[in-house]
Amino acid sequence: MYQYVPGAVYRKIDAQKWRRIFIVGDLHGCFDLLLEKLERQGFDTEQDLLVSVGDLIDRGRQNLECLSLLREKWFCAVRGNHEQMAMDSLADNDPGLWLANGGDWFARLDSARQQQAKALIAECAALPLVIDIPMDQRHVVVAHADYPADNYYFDQPVDSEELVWSRRRIHRNQQGRGAPITGATHFFFGHTPLNRVRHFFNQYYIDTGAVYGGSLTLVEINTLPV
After folding, report:
1. How far apart are CA 102 and CA 54, in angstroms?
2. In whole angstroms, how far apart are CA 20 and each of 30, 86, 177, 213?
3. pLDDT in tens, 176-185
4. Half-sphere exposure for 75 (CA within 13 Å, toward CB)
5. Domains with residue ranges and CATH for the chain
């Protein structure tokens, strides 16, 4: 199991420990689709690492299976807004927002599976909000929704809510008012469903709506252009 530091916003990954590193878009319960994509890529669970942009759960059918990925040594993730909604709902005993955004699967579980889900959702509290992957010629940064600063550096204080929820940067990009983020070569985000991967400057938006019948995007970062 990937070792997270509870409460840490940033987490650094040693790329030299892995043969290949992939980043995957929002899963939203599409577990079987993920396994199909990994098999087609020749993903090796002993040598390769999969990094998720978050939103493992809600709207799809295999939410427990996707949450269980957190216990695999070849998988890591940033926390998405759907994990955050689930955590807040269980902590406050107020499921309204979560239910309105696809969390109804939890209510349909039997008691034993609800307990399993609660334990896995509790583990999401330890997920970082930023994953930092320095490589020889590339420096890759992963967050769920945005990186809310125009210059990046590791452990820089930034607004955690914007990391998980903000669409400000992608809207600026779509309006032709975007700019690069300095401090790293590539930034990967999910959160905003799109009909294809969108690439603005050094920012990649890879939630391609798998749960809505779109594709599930998987990117091997070892082969990114430099």
Report:
1. 15
2. 22, 31, 34, 27
3. 999 999 999 9
4. 17
5. 10-223 (3.60.21.10)
Q: Give the residue numbers annotated as catalytic, written as ranges.
A: 82
Residue 5 has pLDDT above 80, yes or no: no
Q: DSSP per residue over 142-199, as a string? A: EESS---SSB--TT----HHHHHH--HHHHHHHTT---PPBTSSEEEE-SS--SS-EE
Angle at 73 between CA 68 and CA 75, to 5 degrees: 65
Number of residues assigned to the chain: 226
Element holding 141 (H helix, E strand): strand 139-143
| Rounded Cα distance, 203 and 223, in Å | 16
Q: Provide the edge-to-edge strand list for the sheet that holds 139-143.
A: 10-12, 130-134, 139-143, 186-189, 203-205, 198-200
> Helix axis angle, 111-123 relative to 81-92, nearest 10°?
120
66-107 pLDDT, tens digit per residue, is 999 999 999 999 999 999 999 999 999 999 999 999 999 999
| pTM for this entry | 0.96
Count of H-run helices and E-run strands, the chain: 8, 10
216 and 171 Cβ atoms separated by less than 8 Å:
no
Name the one residue in this structure whose structure tokens are 């400000």. 168
